[in-house]
Amino acid sequence: MISRDKYVPVIKCKAGEFIALSKLPEEFKDEIVPITDLVPNPQKKLEEHIHSSIGYIQRWDRERLIYIDGYMIQDNDIMIHRKRYMEYIFNEIRKYKYNVIPVVSNISNPDYIVQIKNIVEKDSRGLCLRIFSSREISINDEIERMMPRIDLGFNQIDLLIDLQSLEILSPDEILNWQKEIIKNLSYSSSWRSLVLTGSNFPINLTKLTANQIHLIPRKHWSAWKQLFESSDIERFPSYSDYGISHPLMSEVEGIPNASASIRYTNSDEYYIYRGRGTRQHGFEQFFEIATALINSSEYFGRDHCYGDEFIYRCGTERKLKGRLLDWRAVGTNHHITVVVNQLRQFWRDFNAVRTS
To answer: What confidence score (pLDDT) does residue 255 get?
Structure first.
């Protein structure tokens, strides 16, 4: 079960993201329940890629809950040691007694659903039902369609409502959409957990001018907070987002000419310090970008988290350039730290008002 005060980051199952998780202090790990999306990697054979993904997941503490979703690679029908890929992953992780729950969704194909049902039957931990939503889709209709297929009671299901990319919507449109969903949600009080996720982070940074600082409002965060001003909502959802990433995959593993950029979360905005392509202009760009961030009023200080210490060393020592995956770890670690602190304060204030 995910209590409503927990933060539920949805992260890609990649090295940088799991470095970010592993570098969190224990008290911050206590406050989060990650969901990781297995991602395709055309540069590797599926079996090799699956083993890499298992290795990333094993960087998370085995006693701490984590959810795994394979929807991005569900069309692979390759068997690994006579097992389908999700069953193989859970079989391997099960050997080390990890606390893992599978995710099924309204876009899962029949074979994937069979795999998840087999995993649930073996582990008896239930599952997460993820409803990918759009403004044209009735979430309640999707729930009614999926419930007979997964054949579990509500008390065995964590419901994740995924609004996906919110980039083109205004803050008011996002808030009204979230209110409509939560107010009218079927079986609202019956689910084991209720989580609401989405993101307005851009799919890539190519539209942002190089060598400039760009500000993007955290619209999903602002709308989620405003939900709690409504008096006619039966059950409030846990907060979830995609960190410093777009919900979809935008990079091709191993060969991108990604820009030297730092994605830096503040209280209500993302600050993106964007440089130029690393292939032509090198990783030394990070020295100047890190220095600019350190000297700005937005910097949280080197003691804030692992990510901020990394930025400080890069900008002051001018030796630690890092790899692209390191900078994804830096930004993700900083983002999670910011959100956990924000949620702690939010729930303190919320509970104080309720008891006053």
So the answer is: 45
Per-residue pLDDT, averaged over 72-79, amounts to: 82
Q: Are 41 and 253 in contact (CB under 8 A)?
A: yes
Angle between helices 171-183 and 219-227 (to 10 degrees): 40
Could you tell me how far CA 89 lies from the centroid of its own chain?
Answer: 20
Q: Does residue 333 sit within a domain?
A: yes
Q: How far apart are CA 165 and CA 219, in angstroms?
A: 11
**Residue 15 is part of which domain span?**
7-355
* Count of domains for the chain: 1
CB atoms within 10 A of CB 252: 11
Prediction pTM value: 0.95
Specify the amino acid at residue 254: G
**pLDDT (tens digit, 9 = 90+) per residue, 11-64?**
999 999 999 999 999 999 999 999 999 999 888 888 899 999 999 999 999 999
d(CA 90, CA 352): 42
The two three-digit tokens of residue 186, written as one number = 């079927």
